[in-house]
Amino acid sequence: MGLVPGSIAQVRRSVFHRSRNGMKTLWKYVIINDIWMNMPDRNALLRFESQRLEAVIRDANGEAISREIEVRTHPISGRKCRIAFSRSEELEPGTEHLPPAPPDAEGSSECPFCPGNITHLTPRLRKELDREGRMVHGTSTLIPNLFPYGAYSAVSLFDDRHFVEIGTAHPETYADCLSNCARYLEKVLRFDPRAQFMAITQNHLPAAGGSLVHPHLQVHADRLPSNQHAFLMGRADQYHRSTGRLLFSDYLAAEQMDGRRIIGETGPWHWLAAFAPEGFFEIWALYPGKTAFSQISTKEWKSLSRGVVNAQRFYRSLFRNSYNLGVLSVESDESALELQVVLIVRANYAPWVRNDITGYEVMLGDMATFTAPEETARQARAFWQTG
Questions:
Q1: Which of 274, 306, 270 is nearest to 286 (CA)?
Q2: Which residues pair with 36 in a beta bridge?
Q3: Which of 163, 175, 330, 387 would you call most buried, defined as having the most Cβ atoms within 10 angstroms of its Cβ?
Q4: pLDDT, tens digit (0-9, with 9 covering 90-100), for 188-239
Q5: Do the beta carbons of residue 266 and residue 306 sit within 8 Å?
Q6: Residue 164 — left, alpha, or beta (φ > 0 → left; ψ -120 to 50 → alpha)?
């Protein structure tokens, strides 16, 4: 079948695999779904590939039990994840209900981010970036990171309350915070045009890496790319050179054709569950065609904020209280890397809760999760219909 230039066709391939277990031959039926993009270079192919495996064990009475595992390959990175469906049958310890607030949730006179403490407990930005030393935008105050990870590390606060439970933040405060981050990064780029590798992240509660429970975002700009910057920039640039198109725009087009992982929209941001998740209940927001923070308007930051709070409300419904957020940008006219916001659930911040990263991820390099992305999208859609 011929493809119209620029079109997408979905091809389903069925492969039989045979293995021997003693004298018995087991046949494994594997479904591989490929999204074939009509382009001049096969190396630029976007492949949504999955394989079903079967593990056969016997119960205590000797009866055979079949356990199904799905192995998916990430269309962008090529990394594999494993979905162990049988683990979803057991209740994850610590998720019977939303854990109580952290011990210091009521606030502390020692918290540098609480009102009244900022001016005498937090550092100031260098004068070349801001003469006052602290940038205020609406409800947000931005200060330098006292423990920087790069040349231009900052922290942007977004609520006067010391602790804000997941799913209860006001979208307006998030919007002020994100806009403040963008204003700071714009100043950095004017001062140091080579510091074009930028990121905005969030570690909600210590289980996600947060050192203080007071709500804030981390802001980063550097001349040296992070590993993720370098990989995604290279992948997007190679794709653009091969096809003349943008990687995440084509990814979104393929997902929209499939439809099963699409969640909803907030303004120009398209929300979907990751095909091959690298974290629990991983959700993306894509903005097709936008390749830099400097291209995003105040109104568009507000639209993103609504979606972030929608995702938090969804996570809260799962009795999860901790998560990470991140979005990267390469602020260069030559960059083909579009904006991709990623959110993942982390292990609950509560006593005696199992860590979400195990030896499988650390030593084997495959993410092991328990819920199909299609189910994540199905459950999450309701929060976009009301949010």
A1: 270
A2: 9
A3: 175
A4: 999 999 999 999 999 999 999 898 999 999 999 999 999 999 999 999 999 9
A5: yes
A6: beta
